[in-house]
Amino acid sequence: MKHHPFSRLLVVAVLVLLPVFAATLRAQGPVMITGTVADSVTGEGLPFAQLLVRGSTTGTVSNAEGQFVLAIPPGIRADTLLVSYMGYRTARIPLPAMLQPPVRFVLSPVSLQMAEVEIVALTPETVIRKAVAAIPANYGTDSLVLTAFVRSQKSVGGKLAEFTEAIIRDLKTGYTPYTAREEQKRNRTTNLTSLVKGRVVSDTALVNFLGDVGRNAGCLGCNFIHDFAEFYRNTVLDETLFRYYDFRLEEIADPTGGKIYHIRFDQKKGVRQKLWKGDIYIQAGDFAILQVTQKPSFEGFGEFEKQKEKKQYRIGGIDGWIGEMPRMEWTTTYNRRNGSYYLATIRVQNWVTFTHPVRAKQVKFWHLNEVVVTDASRDSTTVRNFRGDRYSGVDQRWDQVVGKADGQFWAGFNYLPVEKQLQESLEKMESRGTGNRQ
After folding, report:
1. Does domain 9-114 match CATH 3.40.50.300?
2. Which pLDDT band holds residue 397 (cuts at 50, 70, 90)?
3. Where exactly are the structural domains of the chain?
């Protein structure tokens, strides 16, 4: 059973802790909590459930199988762990009561009664305008440093071609209003990044086969371009583009109390653009943006077909490959940490079929990129002493820059455990004898 975030469900959370030994919360180093967040009906893990220590900025997100690792640093162990999933009631567990890992959090969905869904008087456009106007107050105008876990996977023809992981730190210069003319300057001055540790595992033959589609680990700062609260121009949040979209608005119950505005959007019929369809979730009380999910609108298919041959690729040493309209989905989420809203996750999944008209051949490419913000700091000393740039990771293999990372290192940064299916793919990559692991 698959649950879409913010499905129309009321929220009930049931917490189950399995082991019998009490955790030692007085140790000097971080206390590691490992476990799973699961659905009470199916028993399946809930992907990308959020775990956050209340009153702090420390948190993580479960992986595709609902597994997580969370390091609880000294000084905040007397607080409460919040476990949340969109459409479920947030579980609140006192940290001193936590048992030895692994733990299992079981969340139970309950159907939302129709009486609790209302059509509101505000228009969708008005709600979005209010949300954009409230960005500085909700997300903060002062600079901050994010610590994030990044994972990227590339597959060709169903075979894993490249796997990358990294811990990065990113300096944002604050969430402030800006004009369309100021967008390029904004891009140059924010999201300066530094690589703490990274690793790259590659199937050399497949990576070389990709050619133009991408050989390097990528630009570290580029992981944050889908922060809609920071870069709202030229997105569905930009009121200059409202005329291209159809919006539908409903008001739904917030699992933590209050209400949430749910806005569905799609490109208008007859608009000659390549735009998006998707969902926006906005907190009704303070107009904070909680989540934006978008995918290419099928209404833009005709325009894509007209333009697709303008950009051709070199794949397998052969020129002239053309990318068909991608199946792509971007999801960006935010959560409230220590009194303010912060970027929580960015997940981009992309399926593209490349065709060669002359040779009548196809290549299927899949790319998944995940960003999980595990900590955030607005401490003036941390911001002032940060050293980073816009070019970290560009045309560089991350492992060659900072060396090999061991498992103990990753755990200390609340890394997302590699799920079983991915581990099997990694093992197959290396067993083929073509793996290039540094």
Report:
1. no
2. confident
3. 9-114, 124-437
